[in-house]
Amino acid sequence: MEVVILPHAEAIGALAARLVAAELRRAERPVLGLATGSSPLVIYAALRRLVEAGDLALAGVPGFALDEYVGLPAGHPESYAEVLRREVVEPLCMDPALVRAPDGAAADLEVACEAYEQAIAEAGGITVQILGIGENGHIGFNEPTSSLASRTRIKTLTAATRAANARFFPDGDAVPTHCLTQGLGTILDAGALVLVAQGERKAEAVRQAVEGPLSSRWPASALQLHRRATVIVDEAAAGRLELADYYRETFAAKPDWQRV
Ligand code: F6R
Questions:
Q1: What domains are there in the chain, each with its CATH number?
Q2: CA–CA distance, 191 with 83 (Å, rounded to integer)
Q3: Is 67 close to ligand 1, i.e. is its CB under 6 Å away?
Q4: pLDDT tens string 199-237
């Protein structure tokens, strides 16, 4: 795992976007794994600059969301399909027909989960997966004690996650209690993982993910199993990392050929 500590969110977005773009450019069948939430917005802003500069074309690139709420009607502004349409698909000039999320409004949710796994497989697998991290260490909506081998399935959101996401439901709508999420096993199948985190509130989750034991108690620790995982954080989110100085030295001394 590579851990990079940067001074501010814009630098995080710029580096993460360069990494994502490099992975997509060299893939035979590029497929982008998308996260929602606040953390990756800086990545999408930086990717947009690359697209607008003509350095990256995403029009033909399929995209797969990590997760979706269960029970929101199609077109609900806070469904992740809608959030991605507004915040990612349109600004990045992606093809809406090629970008999908698990179908949280399906009559048969298990069938919807299987269909989602199959769609990812048929696209050739996810080339690079963008990830945020919850304060309790979730990635996607794999809440604590999610199986490290899990696939796309229904999960119950923790009270803490629902409280954290209540800010997206200002009209008094309740945050849904359930979601469909790619499993930890699904996420680990991606060719590369890029996780970003900002702020002191994420510091414990980042510490557990990077330096803690591999444990479903902190689902993001599953990244330790991946051969090509990069964790990019600001100083506040890095605040509890025991080996922070080592990560800084490693990044500063990185040979040119390894830089993107
Ligand atoms: C959303 C997702 C979640 C978020 C996490 C952090 O698709 O997969 O794991 O990344 O809840 O959310 P923010 O970035 O809003 O703090």
A1: 2-258 (3.40.50.1360)
A2: 25
A3: yes
A4: 999 999 999 999 999 999 999 999 999 999 999 999 999
